[in-house]
Each structure stands twice: as structure tokens, then as C-alpha cells.
Amino acid sequence: MPYVPISWLAEHAAVPAGTSAEQLAEDLVRVGLEEEGVVPPAVTGPLVVGRVLSRVEETHANGKTVGYCRVDVGQLNDAPGTGKEPADVASRGIVCGAPNVYAGQLVVVALPGAVLPGDFRISPRKTYGHVSDGMICSAAELGLSEDHDGIIDLGDLLGAEAADDLPLGSDLTGVLGLGEEVLEINVTPDRGYCFAMRGVAREYHHSTGAAFTDPGLPENLPGGAVPAPTAGAFGVELADEAPIDGVAGADRFVTRVVRGIDPARPTPTWLSARLRASGMRPISLAVDVTNYVMLDLGQPIHAYDLGALAAPIVVRRAAAGERLTTLDDVERTLHPEDLLITDSPAGHGSRVLGLAGVMGGASTEVSASTTDVLVEAAHFDQVSVARTARRHRLPSEAAKRFERGVDPLLAPVAAQRVVDLLVELGGGTADEAMVGDVGEPALPQAIVFDPAEARRLVGVDYSRERVVELLTQIGCTVGFGTLGSETDAGIEPSGPLAVTPPSWRPDLVGPAHLVEEIARLDGYDEIPSILPSAPQGGGLTRAQVRRRDVSRTLAEAGLTEVLTYPFIGDVHDLLGYAPDDERRAVVRLSNPLAEDAGALRTSILDTLLEAARRNVARSSGPLALLETGLVTRPSGTVATSTPSAAERPSDDELAALDAAVPDQPRHVAGVLGGVQVPAGPLAPGRAADWADAIELARTAAAVVGVEVRVEADAIAPFHPGRSARIVGVGVADGEDAVLGHAGELHPDVVKGLGLPARTAAFELDLDVLTSAPTEPVQVRAVSTYPSAKEDFAFVVAAVIPAADVVGSVAEAAGELAEEVRLFDVYSGDQVGEGRVSYAVAVRLRAPDRTLTAEDIAEVRERIVTEVGTRHGATLRG
Fold this sequence. Notes:
By secondary structure, the protein is α+β, with helices and mostly antiparallel strands. The protein has 6 domains: about 10-35 and about 190-215, no CATH class; about 45-165, CATH 2.40.50.140; about 235-440, Phenylalanyl-trna Synthetase, Chain B, domain 3 (Phenylalanyl-tRNA Synthetase, Chain B, domain 3); about 460-525, 2-Layer Sandwich (Phenylalanyl-tRNA Synthetase, Chain B, domain 1), CATH 3.30.56; about 540-770, 2-Layer Sandwich (BirA Bifunctional Protein, domain 2), CATH 3.30.930.10; about 790-875, Alpha-Beta Plaits. It has 21 helices and 42 strands. The protein has a 7-stranded mixed beta sheet with strand order 28-31-32-38-37-36-35, sandwiched between helices. A hairpin with a 5-residue loop joins strand 35 (about 710) and strand 36. The longest helix has 19 residues, at about 855-870. The radius of gyration is 44 Å and the shape is elongated.
């Protein structure tokens, strides 16, 4: 993330004195630059100029030799010293083990109360027989470098003349760049120009109205202009023969030459301090200058050792087998899409110098002996740089900027800034005969923009004048009428605008982007917050309420709701589906998540049983799973082609698309297996069976008020003799319809999946269930009269379902029946072969009286007669 030192920002924008990092963050967030954090000063407390008055070496018992120094820190001195110290001069006593301390030297002194990097706090402490009242600092202790060899000599660091001008005891945190807060900001990918102080200063100007001086314009250079290219410039050829998506990898390449740089010249303190504040490590003067200009303007710069180059430089794509050792000392195998900087030294053929826009190579690196440098400032394609950086895992500072878009007009200005600094700080000389500028960069194209679009998208009534004002502020050129036309007569009252974005905003490519800029600069806080009124009759639909009721009721019955992926492989053979079963017709996916799951399920049990298998394999205890979800039934769908995205599909195309979408009903299913009721001291445990599955299906229907009928049936994957179909009474336009099936799973399915013996399941069509017309439930008053209980044991043919017998009993009992329940089933020698006994309990109660013996006998007679007539039943003796 970019770092913003306030003193640096103030060079380009009129930042008020005393502005804090917090205030700066508030100003920038108004234009969309969010605060990432505030980096506190590297040093707090007194860090001052001191002059060493004396140094006495002492060797102690441990064999270590240290120096006891008296240091003059001006008005911050303590009382005069005693003993070995000069008694006539006020000073502070400091123990220092550095070997390069000498009398008369100007040094950096951290006094008690100072806090150095690493939360190192300075306080008076007794050591080696003295009270050390401060610390003489090295560059490493202040975080200025990794140099631990000795303390800082201000004469060497700042120059003897500049150091002598500093009063003793004066503050050094500002001089060394250590006392300033730095704001870290978050920049979105479309705002790459804010990776430079130039861009942040512009945004500060937009936010506060502070005066802004653009350092990226030629007229704001010290010389007021950029030199024109010369015929004798260092040769450069742009030879990209394999552009990506038809866009050349490089469309501009500027070169400048500076000779006679003193390699011994150090990087000035102010420049190295700014690099460190921006998260970069100072390396050498030439490299530091290029990094500084990049951070300031946003144009990545590369410096080559001129003596190691051979003209011409050729910008081309990599060839098969080429390799490059980059500046990080890693040898890399290059890809044909990599854009390269190359040259052709005698006897070496084409030599790779670097990855364009990403990182240079080690062969032409600026070294400690380099005196002549070639400065490169180029404009590279965003996509090409981004792919190369990711391919080689090289997220360099240059790549971060190029892949977000760099101003194509900035290269000559940035190159001139580097040249000026190398001449000023390094003692070099600009070679005016070696000014190169090759290529024609592509500039942003004009956008036809209707000012009313801003009002439509944002909801703020921006005037036409305000729209033009804001677009002009961000650097756009606004024309009126047709593209390319302009008028001096003012803003035309109507019609579209022709808006040409500035060169530093490659992200502005359409009307919506311009609207975003208008809203941003006018102020997001100007956009009214309007809460939409809630329309009457909102909330969940009747079907949604019913689906939730079903899921909640089944969960309350002990099932655990799960969610499985609706993708299946070859499971239908395992589940025993017949060859002509309509559920074998599946929708195949053209791009499945897994090769072994390339189709959509046609039944919830297709995937729920696999989840049950995994739970059993992991010993998760009794099996009781529930799932609601969509199944896909492709029968009746008609394939169609995908319409073009260039225009809205026609009504016929939309109808064809709708017909091509397969039916996707919503189902609910459950699986039960293993011990459901644990054994106790008074009763044995009970495992799940077919009756549990049927009862859960009944429960799901009852919660939405649907009456069901249970009929014997045989369908995979259920047991042919221990399963049933669940029929909804009057659920489909008043007609009965099959809702689904419930019962015990087929033994082969149970064995194939490794489930507990006699595992049971159910599956219902939830769409049919929840859309069934039902009458509101009329709650009956609780009768206060006593009930009467009668039990019946009917012997019928074994083919007659128990549900039919129970239904006949309830119908015959009439309104007096409070409960009719099957409580036992028996088949054996006592009832005869092919016969079965159903025991039914009936509880009778009248709402307005106590039932008499005659009332009960009458009901009993009706029941026996009705069941006998319908089913040929006899009472078991």
C-alpha cells in the first residue's frame, strides 16, 4: 500500500501547517482513498546534536574496553562534571563503546525520554562505573541503515559545513526524517495513479480545494521543458512481433544518458529518509534516485550501467529456451509471452537485460563503480506486465504500477527528473546528444456522455454546468455536440458531451466511469440516504412458510438437516433403478466440478444416501438425516441455442430458453437407521423401521394440513414388501396425487452403501405438498366429559393394507371418534395362512354429554359392520 509522508505531499499541494495524519486520512477518504493505518514516528523524544568534548578509554575486568565521553548538547547539558571530566565545561556523561568516537566530533545524541525503533527507551543508567546520561547513536540504532560499525558522524552524513550550522542541542528528528507520522492508504486497482505522490496530491486538491502543482508537467520541471530527441540517441527498437490481444507490449521508450557520476557520493539524508518512509530500502545514489522519482511521479524508471550495454536496445518477446538472472539473483526460464529488454553485444548474440516493466537483469546492474548510466523511462502494456509478474511471482514496485496503468505522457518528464537529480546529487553531466524518445503511445479516446446519466445512476440532480465542472477538475477535456467538436460560446443547453479522459486515467473508458467520478468529487455525503418503504403484503409466501414448517417439524422430530451438493455420478445402478425408470434421465453438466459427478440428481435420495454412508463410516451414532432441495427432471425439455449477448433476446428466444430449462421440483427426504431409542433398564432399545419413515411422511403432510393415504407399492430404492406410496388427498385440483414414497430400503441398497440393517427412508414432492389447497384448521373445543375406549382385532386378507382398515374404522365411528390408532399387527397360525390381524384402538368422546352404554354399543356395531362389509373382516376371538 502507498505511504504518504505529509512533508512530501506538501511539496505538490498546499497542505496546512500542523496537519496530522488523522486529519489527512479524513480529507482523503472523502474522495475514496481509505486509511490503511498510521505509521508513528520512528523516534520520539529528544534526539539532538551533540559535540564530543572528551573521550577516555577504560578497560574493565571483563576485558572490554569502553569510552566514557563528555558531550556538549547546548541548553540540554547537566551540571559540570567531576573527576576525569573537564570541570569547567557543562556537558553530559555518556558511556559509548563505538571505536570511531573522538573529541570535537558532531554526533547524534538520544537523551533520556527518547524512544528509538524497536521500542528501545533511553534513560539514565549506571554502567561500567559511570552514569550514562543518554546514548550516542549509530545508523542501525536509528533504523537508518544496517551499519553497526560505528556511530553517526554528522560531518560525514550532512557535510562539514551543514553540520557546523546546526546549533548544539537542536532537534535532529526532522533533519534525519525520523519524526514524522506517515499515512498508509488503500488504493483500489482502478486508481493506480495514486501509487505516486503526484496522484495523492491531486486527490487532496479535489477533496480540500488546496492549490496543486502538477510535477508531471514539463513546464513544472526546473528547466521548464523536456529536451527534444536527438539523432545521436542510444538506439532503441520496439520489435514486439507477438502482441497480446493485438496490443503492443511497449509503445514508448525514452532514454537519457548521464556521465561522470561520482560513485562515492552517498544518497542525501532527505532522500533516503523519504524512501524509508515509503517502505523502500536505500541502495545507492543512482538506484535511489530512480525509486524516488517513481514514488513521486508514478513512472517506474530503470538505470543501466552504460558501459555494460551495447546498442541497440531491442524490446521483444522471449524465445524458447531463453533464461535470465534477475536483480534478485534468481535464474528464470522465460515464457514466449514475456516482454524483454535486450541488446546485442559483440560475440554474444541477443542478450536479455530484463523483464520489461517487472525487473532488470544482473548483467547491466548499476554497481559501486558505475559512473555512466543509461536512464530508461518506458510505457508498457498493463496486461503484458501483469501476466509476466504473476508468471514469475515477481510483484515488484514497477509491476504494481504498470499493471494498473501508467501515464503514457509521463516518461520524458520522469526521465528528466532523474537526470536533474543525478547531475545535482551525483556530480554527473547530462549528455544532451543522447536524448531518445521512440514510439507513439495510445492516448484515451473520447467518450460520448449524456449528463443526465449521472442523475439516473446516482439519484442526485446534477446540473449540466456542475457535470462539466467536475469532469474538468479531474483533467478531462470536455467538448460539445459531436466527438471532437468544441465551442467557446459556453455550455450548450442539451445534447451529449464528448469527454476525453486525461492521460493518467486509463480506467475511464465508459459513461459509468465518468458518473462514478462525478459522484466521488461532488461528495458521497451529498447522495441522499433514502430508505425504501416496505410494501404491504410482503414477507414470506404461503409456500415458503409451509416449507419452513415442514423442515422445522421434521427437525423437531429428531432429524438433522443437511445440505448436499446436487451432483451425482453413476449411482442409479446402486440404488436399483429399473432400466426404464424416468429418474435415470439426467441433465449432464458441460463443466462439472468433478469428473465422477457430472450430472444433476433426479432424487434427493441420490445424494442424501451418500451423506448417510459417510456418517455411518465415521461412527456418528444413530442415523437420522433430513434434506430439502431441488431435483432435476429433464423430461419434456427442448434444447435451444444460446442467443447473442449483443442485443436483448426476442420473445421467441426467451420462450425457447424457458422451454429448455428442465423441471426442477423441490423435494424433502429423510433417512433413518440404527438404534433410535436406546435400551434402558426397563425396556429394550428400538431400531428404525419402515413404520418410522411412513410416520415422518405423515407428519410432514399433517403440518401443512394435507390428508394422506398410505398404499402398498414397490419402487426402487425401497423394499418391495416394506414400503408404500404416500398419496395426497385432493392435492392436485381436487384430485388425489402421489406425493412420494416411504419405507425400508432394499437390502441390496443397504448392503451396497454400508448402512445399518433395515435402514428406512422417505421422499416427498414438497412443491405439490405446499401448494395443496387446504382449509384453515378449525380447533375443536376440549370436551370436559369422560371418554370411552374400545379395542378391535380385525382378521383380514394379508393383501389389505392396515391403513384401509383404520380408515374404515374412523369413518364408521363418525364425529364421536377422538382417536383411531393401529397398535398391533399379527400374522401366524392363530389367524390362518394368508390372513393378518390388525388391532385398532378407538377413543370415543362426546362434546356435550357423557356417552351411555347404548351410544358406545351403537358405534361398536357400526364399526364391525362397516369393516366387515368393505374388507371381509372378522373379529379375532
